[in-house]
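[Discussion] Sanity-checking designs against the backbone

I'm trying to build intuition for which residues belong where. Below is a structure token string of 413 positions. I'd appreciate it if someone posts a full sequence so I can compare it with mine line by line.
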């Protein structure tokens, strides 16, 4: 039997899997040869950390794809986007389960990262081994959990949360999701995760009052306070250089994470135009969490407002537009898992993104205009309403999460 090796995200219902890229001990199935019959089987493979599978070549022919086409798709970064017609449209129950797993993973990772920062506070120095373990755990979570569930768990972190360890965890997770979307290899991702965890440790040497007010416009920091705050990348770098045991690329990423592309960043000797794609990802992830949580004392923004601000800064030349655009494509203007209110007054859950119309995702209507829950949620693709009345669109994002939402099977409108 002729076989072809493809990424697991290219699996489709009807394909014949003949081999997995892991031993039977790690396999979620007793047999490594089976025909994919439902999306749940693909989800099990993804959750088990399986990256590639071998399928019968006849499966490709049945799908009308050549081996060369498969190779091209394999080389292209995955955006994680789905459409309404895709067979992997998940049920509300699956989304609930994903989100629950992401919340649990975040709680466990918070403990690991808090341990790293507690050690820094106690010893005044960084433990490279402890940091490496935390970075690996975050990388595993970013690989095995869906990007949409991870981002939803981050947005529910709590507005106004200025805990430095939680900021570090959020930045690291966001950076890894973006790094994977750009097709970075495991070593590059490990460097990125390590730098993201430690990029702001220099803030531990700055007066807490200055850190809490670093992004407050009224009253703003004085010139002297602003100058002290802007020393934190250099302070972070010096702490790591004195301790030793960290790769040079990690030091570079930390030193340049405020070197904006338009020259408005700091330290003065950094040049944003010469920064690497990893630095630009770290720069964006840092700003994303600051806007979202209000880290530094600013008023927190909603997820879609955060993306608007980042896009505007990219248009103005401070951030890399290609990185911001990739972030928007990965998470969508309205996050999967978000609860929204439609213009009709109905409440719905965002179930999937539309690749070409991110402002018009696929939603499941869970409550009618009067607020009464529907016995069976109705799935509507906001981009494909075909003139049906009423024409629906998202009016606002509601506070809350899927934990309180129904998990019944949904029907299409």
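Best answer:
Here's mine. Compare freely.
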């Amino acid at each position: 039997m002729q076989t072809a090796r493809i990424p697991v995200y290219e699996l489709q219902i009807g394909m014949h899997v003949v081999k997995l890229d892991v031993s039977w001990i790690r396999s979620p199935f007793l047999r490594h040869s089976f025909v994919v019959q439902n999306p749940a089987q693909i989800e099990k493979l993804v959750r088990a950390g399986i990256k590639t599978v071998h399928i019968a070549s006849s499966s490709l022919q049945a799908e009308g794809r050549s081996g060369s086409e498969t190779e091209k798709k394999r080389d292209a970064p995955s955006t994680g986007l789905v459409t309404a017609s895709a067979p992997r449209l998940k049920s509300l129950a699956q989304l609930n389960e994903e989100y629950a797993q992401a919340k649990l993973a975040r709680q466990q990772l918070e403990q690991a990262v808090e341990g790293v920062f507690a050690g820094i506070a106690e010893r005044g120095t960084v433990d490279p081994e402890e940091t490496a373990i935390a970075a690996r755990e975050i990388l595993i979570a970013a690989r095995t959990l869906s990007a949409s569930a991870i981002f939803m768990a981050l947005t529910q972190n709590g507005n106004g949360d200025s805990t430095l360890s939680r900021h570090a965890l959020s930045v690291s997770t966001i950076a890894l999701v973006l790094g994977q979307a750009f097709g970075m290899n495991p070593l590059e991702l490990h460097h990125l995760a390590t730098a993201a965890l430690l990029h702001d440790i220099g803030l531990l040497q700055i007066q807490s009052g200055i850190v809490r007010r670093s992004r407050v416009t009224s009253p703003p920091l004085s010139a002297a306070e602003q100058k002290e705050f802007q020393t934190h990348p250099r302070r972070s770098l010096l702490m790591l250089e004195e301790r030793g045991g960290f790769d040079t690329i990690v030091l570079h990423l930390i030193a340049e994470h405020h070197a904006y592309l338009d020259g408005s960043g700091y330290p003065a000797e950094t040049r944003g135009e010469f920064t690497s794609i990893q630095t630009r990802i770290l720069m964006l992830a840092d700003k994303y969490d600051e806007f979202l949580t209000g880290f530094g004392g600013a008023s927190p923004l909603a997820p879609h407002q955060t993306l608007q601000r980042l896009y505007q800064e990219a248009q103005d030349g401070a951030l890399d537009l290609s990185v911001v655009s990739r972030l928007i494509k990965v998470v969508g203007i309205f996050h999967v898992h978000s609860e929204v209110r439609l213009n009709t007054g109905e409440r719905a859950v965002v179930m999937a993104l539309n690749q070409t119309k991110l402002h018009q995702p696929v939603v499941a209507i869970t409550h009618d205009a009067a607020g009464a829950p529907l016995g069976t949620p109705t799935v509507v693709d906001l981009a494909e309403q075909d003139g049906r009345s009423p024409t629906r669109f998202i009016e606002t994002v509601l506070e809350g999460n899927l934990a309180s939402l129904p998990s019944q099977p949904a029907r299409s409108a």
